[in-house]
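Reading group handout, session on sequence-to-structure problems. Before we discuss, look at one worked example. The prompt was deliberately terse, the way you'd type it at a terminal:

> structure Na(+)-translocating NADH-quinone reductase subunit B

The input record follows.
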Amino acid sequence: MDFLRSKLDKIKPLFEKGGKYEKYGPAFSGIDTFLYVPNHTTKKGAHIRDGVDLKRVMITVVIAMIPTIIFGMWNIGYQNMGAGHGFWEYFMFGAVRFVPMIVVSYAVGLGIEFAYAIFRGHEVNEGYLVTGLLIPLIMPIDLPLWMLAVSVVFAVVIGKEAFGGTGMNILNPALVARAFALFSYAPYMSGNTVWVADSVADGVSGETVLGTLAANGQPSFSVYDMFMGFIPGSVGETSVLMILIGAAILLFTGIGSWRIMLSTLLGGAVMGLIFNAFGSTTNELINFPWWKHLIVGGFAFGLVFMATDPVTAAQTAKGKWIYGFLIGIFAILIRVVNPTLPEGMMMAILLMNVFAPTIDHYVVQGNIKKRKKRLVKVNA
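And the output record:
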């Protein structure tokens, strides 16, 4: 690594102010700080001694997603090929189909990020390190790559850069990409065939648990299958166990908000219990046990990796409780009552992304009023 460091230091003056390639300085800086910890320090104002920068935070989130990625690629092979094959056969089958999605996502997304950085003359934003991996994780495995690319362009340009880049966007970019794909290429985003890529096994059905319930059918998968992830679905959402491992990493490192995770879980449970209390003879999603709602579909993945996005989530402690609880409520509500969207987590999070600033505003205003009342009592 010393060799690489010396080479970067040698060409660095070419990209600094007055250098031959000054225009491309932001792109060089982005590569340099991605490989090495930045050596610049603050010159004024408050100084916080911390060895973690934004890129390291993003890398930690990526590491937390690795268990879901590995299992997801295996599960692609398992869902397509059926029983009777080895781990590596399943894994390679999935890798051949999933890795190109990652490559396209990063190539298109980072290309736009670098172009915006050069055009605006600022450093490359780090946020796409996570977004670029989240997008393929929440897409159907057989989504044509060009559709994925168009969705990425829309998410980065309209969902992120239009607001000013990383830290300024009001909507989760990965969910913006999925929403765009859902409404633009609906036949490729729903149904019982999109979750199983060019199946080579006879009689393989790609219908998800929620899709079966939405059609008033009964899923054939056991609770064990649902929890472990031996079911059809997008690459990242099927295995609750792998998602919990990722959640543990985020909570241990202090990156993920336990308040949002717990309140989202509680909100989903409450809404599920309400529906179970009423019951239905025409809608099996209403009768589906409340606790099973929490382990199928994108609920767990959205709870851990989407709802906790520090940019688009509520920022105040009380606001996080409200924000997460409402996500859980709306996720199950949309899932049950909307026949065209048996999965409601995406819409719930995007909806609460919009209202997160409002929630924080009223929480802050409430605190201010309480302090004014205490001040009046003290002065009385």
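Points for discussion. First: The chain is about 65% helix and 0% strand. Second: Residues 199-204 have pLDDT under 50 and may be disordered.
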